[in-house]
Amino acid sequence: MKCNSARILKYYRVDAPDRFDLASVHCAHTGDIDKDAAGSILADDVKRLSDLQERLYAEDRWAVLIVLQGMDAAGKDSVVAHVMSGVNPQGCDVHSFKAPSAEELDHDFMWRTSTRLPARGRIGIFNRSYYEDVLVVRVHRELMEHQKVPRTLIGKHVWEERFQDIRAFERHLARSGILVLKFFLHVSKEEQRRRFLDRLEQPAKRWKFSMDDVTERRRWDQYMAAYEDMIRTTSTPSAPWYVVPADHKWFTRLVVAAAVIEALEGLGLDFPKIGPAELKEMRKVRAALLAEAPRKGR
Ligand code: AMP
Ligand code: MG
Hints:
Blueprint: H1 5-12, H2 35-59, E1 63-70, H3 76-83, E2 92-96, H4 102-105, H5 111-114, E3 123-127, H6 136-139, H7 142-146, H8 158-175, E4 178-186, H9 189-201, H10 211-217, H11 220-234, E5 241-245, H12 249-265, H13 276-291
Helix pairs in contact: 1-12, 2-12, 3-12
The chain binds adenosine monophosphate and magnesium ion.
Adenosine monophosphate (AMP) binds at residues 72, 97-100, 128, 132-133, 136-137, 143, 212.
């Protein structure tokens, strides 16, 4: 990934959304990376991320929001576990968004995610997000009724209006110093089938299986159409979508890690500078500490 990561990222980042076609990204693609090399590349990337996160935290100006979307078993949890494994838990928050609660349904669709945005200096991860409101809610129109939006406001342009609102919201985040990175983990229907079977067959994985997953699988094509439209209309220079091949988890992790590193490096993060007066004070304190004779037993 090292030598050609910029090229690969450019390939997966949706820079020309109008012309974007989901079928152009192959779910099983692995670039020209060798699986055997993947472990050590990711280990290096995890270290790099840890260093960048420390600077982000120390500088306390920028925040990073990572949005993960994908079908069930696309590998969202695994990205969180592996890519963020080296990051100090004190500087990182992960939020998983499930079907909304009664309280959440009593608010506009952005409310529940807005209250969990990362603070300056922090990395926030949304495992699913407000994008569910133009995905699952679009595929299951009846969910709109649960959202209690006044009926007169739900016209035939309702999805375009939601996309507009999302674009405006993300522009606001970008202008406030919250870097938004969005990843669609693009898994194939066949690989999802294999992963579901794995969940059913392995006792330690059964808890992850839900009957709803199979119901959603039947609407695969509707989901893909909703994802494609969403990516086309909400990929912007300040909040791009990355469409990441997800049939090989080791490759998915490398692409996400590389994208986050590239974005953080672009911020030019540095530790806050210490002025000459403070430095002088620090030297004095250091000298005083050195002069303190160590006492026995302490
Ligand atoms: P999981 O991520 O596998 O735990 O599943 C969470 C489920 O919650 C998925 O089926 C999502 O589609 C669903 N979900 C998330 N957000 C919403 C939403 N706004 N409205 C309805 N269902 C949602
Ligand atoms: Mg699930």
